[in-house]
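User: Study the shape:
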Amino acid sequence: MRGVGFGNLDDPAHPGQSVIGGLNTGQMFWYNSQTGQSKIVETGIEPNPIRMRSIGTPRTGG
């Protein structure tokens, strides 16, 4: 996920404030807690996957 915020959308299914966020796929998501409605929106932004740099074993204990 690229970023998350709140905003008002011009969409009757998402009245008032909705959670709006960008995904690494280049899409955006909308979620409205009043209605429970969510939506994935195509943006035309080029996908930008996260690249893994290494795989290791987690350390536990002190």
In short: Strands lie at 3-8, 17-22, 28-31, 38-41. The mean pLDDT is 83. The two ends are 32 Å apart (CA to CA).
